[in-house]
Amino acid sequence: MSKIQAAITGITGYVPEYKLTNERLTKLVDTSDEWITTRTGIKERRILKGKDKGVSHMGASAVEKLLEETQTDASEIDLLICATVTPDMQFPATANVICDKVGIRNAMSFDLAAACSGFIYAITTASQFIETGKYKKVVVVGGDKMSSIINYADRTTCVIFGDGAGAVMMEPNEEGLGIVDSIMCSDGAGRVHLHQKAGGSAKPSSKNTVDAMEHFVYQEGKSVFKFAVTNMADVSYDLMQRNKLEADDIAYLVPHQANKRIIDATAKRCGISEDKVMVNISDFGNTTNGTIPLCLYQWKNKIKKGDNLIIAAFGGGFTWGSIYLKWAIDPK
User: Fold this and answer.
1) Residue ranges of the chain with pLDDT lower than 50?
2) DSSP annotation string for 210-275
3) What are phi and psi of 175, to 5 degrees?
């Protein structure tokens, strides 16, 4: 009997219409297009506008399209995982809300929070349910409305983040396609460098926390950059070594879109040339859990069935990891 692997059999994405360009940001904060582009590689980012629109709006839009493109009825879905750090509300889970909006009933659904590594944590988690034979059709959503927790007077963070979401269908495969191997890591000591100070049970929301502007992303850029460059690059290299993969064996590196310099460092460590690296940070910025599915969605017609992909991410927590995936979708 062939080994069951969890394969991505469908991919869609969603980004809001409104574009927050570098030029527009210069009117909000002391910065310039040159300063932003040189340090991050970002030219613009999308922002979700509209009353009562949260991650579930973007996630549901992506999932509706996913069900349509894969010709899947909502009743067939066994599990939906939503990777996000900006849920619609503390509870219920945004995954529950997405299921309701798209007509998925009685399926298991939950949120997963691992900062920018959340999407790869989520598809790795989803793969366990598929490999054991427990579930046949699993949807994983990765998305964030980062504009909801960004201080647009803080140029160290407001230039980086944007809003967006993507969704994948995962199903069993016995042809050797799908997730072949993965390495997931974390180090909670890194939380001091990147976090949201208030709003949790340790420091509940109050007038004082709001006045102190502690409900926005806090980031020590230099420390985060140093850890991200090292760990995202090393874990990808280690995964390739463990699976005896050379750079020529890799069709694409799919890195989290946090910073162009971090992406370049990861590619260099793995020996992968620039033409085989998925990059869309210029157009969307860092959408946190949305970056990797949005990359896969944009490149889906270029990836061939059987192609080897290395997917890598690094996030607050700290969390990081890498996945070796054989692509299962035929672009034809």
Assistant:
1) none
2) HHTT-SSEEE-HHHHHHHHHHHHHHHHHHHHHHTT--GGG-SEEEE--S-HHHHHHHHHHHT--GG
3) -100, 5
Report whether 277 contacts 289 (CB < 8 A).
no
pTM: 0.96
Q: Could you tell me the residue ranges of all domains in the chain?
A: 5-177, 180-326
Give the Cα-Cα-Cα angle 106, 109, 114 (nearest 5 degrees). Answer: 180
pLDDT, residue 325, reads 98
Task: Please report the pLDDT score of residue 1 as a whole number.
Answer: 53
Do 39 and 92 form a contact (C-beta atoms < 8 A)? no
**pLDDT on residue 279:** 97
CA distance 12 to 316: 25
Q: What is the pLDDT of residue 311?
A: 98
How far is it, in rounded angstroms, from Cα 279 to Cα 282? 8
Catalytic residue among 116, 158, 270, 295: 116
CATH topology of domain 5-177: Peroxisomal Thiolase; Chain A, domain 1 (3.40.47)
Burial of 201 (0-12, 13-18, 19+ CB in 10 A): exposed
* Neighbouring residues of 159: CB distance < 8 A, sequence distance ≥ 6: 22, 25, 29, 31, 36, 40, 42, 285
Looking at residue 172, its pLDDT comes to 98
Q: Of the listed 22, 173, 259, 286, which one is catalytic? A: 286
Residues in the chain: 332
CATH number of 180-326: 3.40.47.10
Is residue 173 annotated as part of the catalytic site, yes or no? Answer: no
d(CA 235, CA 22): 32
Mark whether 256 is an active-site residue: yes
Domains 5-177 and 180-326 share a fold: yes
Find out whether the peptide bond into 92 is cis, omega within 30 degrees of 0: yes
* pLDDT per position as a tens digit, 99-142: 999 999 999 999 999 999 999 999 999 999 999 999 999 999 99
Q: What is the 3-state composition of the chain as percent helix, strand, coil, each rounded to the nearest 5?
A: 40, 25, 35
pLDDT tens, residue by residue, 49-88: 999 999 999 999 999 999 999 999 999 999 999 999 999 9
pLDDT of amino acid 160: 96
